[in-house]
Amino acid sequence: MTEIETHPFKPFVPAKASVLILGTFPGRKKTLVPGNNEWFYGSKRNQFWNIIRGVYNAELPATEEKKILFTEHGIAIGDIFLKIRRKEDNNLDANLEVVEYNDRALKKILKQHDFVSIFFTSKFVEKQFIKLFPNLKNGECLPSPSPRYARMRLAEKINYYKNKLPK
């Protein structure tokens, strides 16, 4: 049996957040961009921060700049899982075995904030969220920032996110 991994980050929720973006779980340590970028979507291949750079025409060299941008635009970010096991040595959502949901933190966040929109970065996240919060109806799935999601080019993903995220 593989080791249990615990999520290394707390959800980031600015005081005036109106949008919540939810993913699954950070990538394997060895796939993260080294330095001050070990945060949500820190995998070298994941397109999330390239999409956000394109949406806001912003340089985001480190975690602090990402937090500032999300605070300015009222964007919260978190993940649905708190503890997982990986069935194989990769970052695929399908490879994740849930050991513990991040439901306590998410319940607290959802109680304290009235989000206009909750965005999921994959259908898998959406399905897991609905299991935990079946009565919340303001969720929507964004195109996955995974490089494996090849139905859309990066420019198309940027345009899609641009139409959904706060200006």
**Helicity range of the residues?**
25-40%
Sheet of most strands: 4 strands, parallel
Mean pLDDT: 90
What is the C-alpha radius of gyration, as a whole number of Å? 15 Å
Strand tally is: 7
Order the strands across the largest sheet as they lie in space: 3-2-6-7
* Structural class category: alpha/beta
Uncertain spans, ≥5 residues at pLDDT below 50?
none
Strand coverage percent: 15-25%
Shape: globular
Question: Overview of this structure, please?
Answer:
With about 170 residues, the chain is α/β, with parallel strands linked by helices. Helices cover about 30% and strands about 20% of the residues. It contains five helices and seven strands, in the order E-E-H-H-E-E-E-H-E-H-E-H. It has helices at about 50-55, 65-75, 105-110, 125-130, 155-165; strands spanning about 5, 20-25, 75-80, 80-85, 95-100, 115-120, 140. It has a four-stranded parallel sheet with strand order 3-2-6-7. Helix 1 (about 50-55) crosses helix 5. The chain is globular. It starts with a strand and ends with a helix.
Quick synopsis:
Helix content is 31%, strand content 19%. With 167 residues, it is α/β, with parallel strands linked by helices.
What is the topology?
Elements (H helix, E strand, L loop, with lengths): L4 E2 L12 E5 L24 H9 L6 H11 L1 E5 L1 E6 L9 E6 L1 H10 L4 E4 L2 H10 L6 E3 L12 H11 L3
Parallel strand pairs: 2-3, 2-6, 6-7
Antiparallel strand pairs: 1-4, 4-5
Helix pairs in contact: 1-5
